[in-house]
Amino acid sequence: MNIKKYALLCAWFWLISTLTLAQSVNVTGSIMDPVSHKPLAGATITAKGQTSGTVTDNNGHFSVSANRKGPITLRISMIGYEPQTVTVTDTNAPLSIYLNPSVSELDEVVVGASRVEERLVRAPVTIEKMDSRSIRETPSATFYEGINNLKGVDMVTSGLTYRQINTRGFASTGNSRFLQLIDGVDNQPAGFGFSVGNMFGLSDLDAESVELVPGAASALYGPAAFNGALLMTSKDPFTYQGLSVQAKVGVNHLNDPNRNAGPTGAAIYNDHAIRYAKAFNNKLAFKLNASYMWGLDWFATHYTDVNQSTPVEQRGRQNPARNGLNIYGDEVVRTLTGAGQVSRTGYLEKDLTDYNVYSLKLNGALHYRITPALEAIYAFNYAKGTANYTGSNRFSVNGFSLTQHRLELRGKQFFVRWYSNAEDSHDSYNTRSLGQQINRTWVRDLNGNVVTPDKADDTWFSRYAAAYGGTIANVAGNNHTAARSFADQGRLLPGTTEYEAQKNRLTAIQGLAGAGILSQTSMWHADGQYNLTSALNNVAEVLVGGNFRQYSLFTNGTLFDDKGGRILYHEYGAFAQISKAFLADKLKLTVSGRYDKNQNFAGYFTPRASAVFSATDRHHFRASYQTGFRNPTPSDQFIKLNVGPITILGGAPSNSAGMDVYENSYTAASVNQFGAGFGADVNKVGPQQAVLNNKDKLQKSNVPYIAPERVNSFEVGYRGLLSSNLSIDANYYYGVYNNFILNTVVLRPQSPVLGSDGKPNPAAAQDILSGRVQAFQLYTNAPDKVAAQGATLGLTYRTTGGYQIGANGTWSAFDIRNADPNNVAAFNTPRFKTNVTIGHRNIAPNIGFNVAWHWQESFEWVGSFNSLIPGPVPAYHLLDAQVNYRMPSLKTVLKLGANNLTNQYVVQSYGSPAVGGLYYVSLVFDQGLK
After folding, report:
1. What is the pLDDT of residues 719-767, one digit of tens each?
2. What is the domain range of residue 774?
3. In whole angstroms, what is the distance from residue 116 CA to residue 582 CA?
4. 598 inside domain
5. Which of 479, 507, 535 lies at the terminal end of a domain, its last residue?
6. What's the pTM?
């Protein structure tokens, strides 16, 4: 959509609002605390039966527009205070309203647990919430990082601009088992198959609330909500009007032990944002947002030797076959006669990636109220940024962009929504591939001539072998250091003009010949929901909904087999939910069910059943049975990448059509057994008889096409008031998982694997010996079942002096049962973790503070970056803190804060960087020019 179309759309909405403008009035007033008589900023005021609403400014003032017909009923709410309803008959006199403090947050309203508004205490499953005040007062540098203080959350940091959230085990740096929605929109780049933290999300100025639903949520949210869902809501331009500006400046890398691996001293951090919203006569409103963050990323400098072919005691800098964790290019290894195993000299990650990262977010929305109860919305989002992401390799997500459009029609009982996501990888690249490719640009033969890249590795090892063997003049033989120096003659050195030229050239080449990554994948999604409760005369609360999603994959053959055109596939789903209250509203039963069908897989039904028993208004018990499933990502289904000795092949049936791989291949293990047996017999009985003697060791593979993962989970919980100022929330869950997606290797000979007698074919066995065979790494599922369980406990205590103290703890346990460890996804979750928070909103006039302490136990991290070999994540603790000073007359808040105040450099996933402290000061000007 071009600029002219945007202008015409805005003009059209303006004309319609002018022609259909209904008579309305403004209700004004102030909201105050009854004890201190101080104004309450951030209280929400809505008009009953209408979509109009607003929030109080820093002076507690509000002005809300409403339809003039009859008396106007206002609902006023604010966290920490009891909600109040006021009927207004005289709109000429300003109102003065006092809210009574609440002893707990039990009356908080949530949507995520059931997709309808309900009291937090009556939610059928565990749910956590951050409201606008919690977001504003978080001690973390951003609201997204503050989510880590909610109970049950695991947050993994891959870099300054990229953090990944997970709940209830099986964490990863790219979490495709967890759904993240912003205003109902899935903000994942379709090519990734998961949301890239908040890189393409909300700015702090536009974030209104966050709801976290841990555990299987597929019954309501579909296949992506396998381990949970994070639901973020932006600020409505009718409710939150005016100009808001954030200026945040800070420093990181103080006393960085890795400073010798990069720029020295402290680095400057900047995060600036602006938001403007305006409403016209309660009919038409718009908002515009822009934010830009930039800084120096954390260094990944873990150079531990992880070569598994070398005994542990022989690993290290002196190991000729050293494979440093964050060194790339040294994965290329050969066994040389007389010298043993030798690896190429690699390049440090700091010399291959750009640690200067940024995040740009631009978005706007146009809202038009067709009637007081019917609203149309168009929203546009564009985000672009750079991050260093730990996946199967360390990737520089460089200049990656995501463009989104959303159209929505929303009423009191329904919504219909359409949105699209389109990604562009721009200058992204694989740092490990880059290191290997640079190593192939400078190698010289024994005559001093630079060889072509396809001969570089062989030539380098030949030079090494010759030098080590003592055949090179003036080079000491039997000396690994001397042999490496000779083989490395002409090596490009980081920082030189030649090195930078090759680095830039190779990152621009996409595919196996370079290091660049091409992904221009997109998806569009349509969904809707209708609440039938009123239509059914409130006999029960009934909710129905459904969705349709289309994927369009394009990598121009660099990852998928799509040079001939885009790969298209779709999925759809529908759900229904029925809730009914019994026993004088003390017992609430809810049953949900959802059916989903992906074009490439069988349909799946995911039910959920729950019960909430409210013994009194202070004590609420819940129990639920939940199910979930996860569809394979686009890469799981459609990757088709020939990397020479092996072809990586996604598990969708159409992806291998005509290749005869699933139908005609042997297992890798049986091929190894056949080779060993043949080698032992060949000199005894000759090659032909050795084949016949050992061919029956070959085993035809029986690899199923890929299918979704599954989970069945049971949960019980309690939320209530133990005293007038102490609230508690506790839960326990137990889940059984199966069908984990994994890889397996098979070999396809040219001949049929079975003969006419149904036994292994001697001709196929001969193909293996003659090299007429191709290896494939297939995506499939493991039949093994495993279990995970856990519990959380959270306490909130409010003192009479206004302090709020919170503490929560999480216990997680993994039971592998009788499963093969190679067939199970990595749990990657500490057994124990805890958070403690303390804060006061008015410790002194206009001064508040908040402190959060996080600790977690050590555990083993298993990921594809280190070839699924466990690596330690030591126990660590983080202390975040902020103190703020409010200046009501200037509508400004000054905040001084720190992430990781004690500057502990901690690693949160094996192979990712060590993250230190970030210290900042910010000024936020809010709701000006209203």
Report:
1. 999 888 899 999 999 999 999 998 899 999 999 999 999 999 999 999 9
2. 636-706+743-781
3. 19
4. no
5. 507
6. 0.90
